[in-house]
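Write out structure tokens for RDD family protein.
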Amino acid sequence: MDATFENVENSEAAYDQVEKIKSNDYNHLLAGFWIRLWAYLIDLLVVSSVNRILIYPLFELMGLNNNKSFIFSPVSIATALIFFAYFVLMTKYLNQTLGKMIFGIKVISIKEENISWGTILFREFIGRYISKTIWIGYLIVAFTPKKQALHDIFADTQVIHEKLYILKHNQVKSAE
């Protein structure tokens, strides 16, 4: 039985050693365009499913105007609120949405230890609105050195892989 506890202690020490090495010599790998696109598509599927399961039937039961073509109809406003609430709350409390969880990526702040409410709200409302109206806002992820979309640049955030790392030395070489 002592050998079992010894192995556990050794594995914990090894884990601590690996984490120390990672923090000193490695940076998280940045998430690129394609993985972010797939995560976003899954998020859209989640949000649209919630809207179709909850919002549309609820508005139908209440007999409210269910005219989805009018931008300021009650159902359009409710679905927009669900969309933004999903992205804001998931990013604030978990640093990732369900789509990002599936692909092992998350949002981090470049300037802050934890992402503040101001940063999240700016990123998700203002920045995402700009990126949606100017589709290049999303496409520039493929071309910027830090793999940031327009809303990431405005909010000083990045999307990284949680468990993939790159040597700091290699990043310096590739930047030159």
